[in-house]
Amino acid sequence: MSTVTFSAPSRALGVFAAEMRKARSFPPIGRTLLFGALALFIAAVFIMSQAGQFLAQGRGDELGGLTTADVMLILLHYGQIIPILLGAWVIGQDIPIGPRRTAFLVTAGRDTLFAIKIATTAIIALIGAAVCVAASLVPLAVAGGDPTATIVLAPYWWLIGYWAVIAVVSASLVAATRSITFAVTPILVWTIGLSDLLAAQTPALSGALDQAFKSAYLQAGAMPSATVLIAAAAQVIAALVIGAVLYQRRDVR
């Protein structure tokens, strides 16, 4: 009687397909994306309405020199809460039921599984970013209302890339800490406020991951300097290494 064996790439593809199915079927992931996109759409409609009223009444100066397209980018900047949560959910979904009993009793090794989960995170974050960008831009593209608000796509490519990167960092830190709370809370505190406050006083922090991308997508898609890009890449690599090492070395529980 012959036996069927599967190569390592085939096993990895099987595990990847399983991880994608898990992600699609895990309610918090879908809800985070749905509610996030809906909230951004509603906010975009509100901004368009307000901007249209200001312009119609000759109060354009109350927009602070910003076009509605600028405001959409700022809105999406704070929308980074969405990819941070998505990254946490992809790996964190195993934690409540004991990831060392479920995540590692599979054909793929721990290192392969971690890489697959990170790839899954990046794909989901990219899809989420595209959906949320569309949700924010559709009201602007359809309704118009601000003749100065030309949609330039370059900043949005940087923002979509950032969402994928910050989701991967979030997933890596959840893998390292085995806690969504301990990983997500500091990331949110840093990216949504503390980083901007400190960077304003300490120019060296312009090389922080979130600041590097922010300088690109909030400044018409301008390319950051090579030094800043290298510093940002080093931070992502450090998060991946820490996550991978701790994810593999924890004992099965």
Features:
253 residues, mainly alpha, globular
Could you characterize what this model shows?
The chain is mainly α and 253 residues long. The protein has 10 helices and no strands. It has helices at 8-25, 27-56, 68-78, 81-92, 99-102, 110-143, 154-177, 180-201, 209-217, 226-249. It starts with 7 loop residues before the first helix and ends with a helix.
* Average pLDDT score: 82
Low-pLDDT runs of 5+ residues are 1-6, 97-102
Number of strands: 0
Per DSSP, the total helix count is 10
Distance between the termini: 37 Å
Question: What kind of sheet is the major sheet?
Answer: none
Give me the secondary-structure category: mainly alpha
One letter per element, helices H and strands E, the order comes to HHHHHHHHHH
Our Rg estimate from Cα atoms comes to: 21 Å
Helix content: over 70%
Concise summary:
By secondary structure, this protein is mainly α.
Topology:
Elements: H1 8-25, H2 27-56, H3 68-78, H4 81-92, H5 99-102, H6 110-143, H7 154-177, H8 180-201, H9 209-217, H10 226-249
Helix pairs in contact: 1-6, 2-3, 2-4, 2-6, 3-6, 4-6, 4-7, 4-8, 6-7, 6-10, 7-8, 7-9, 7-10
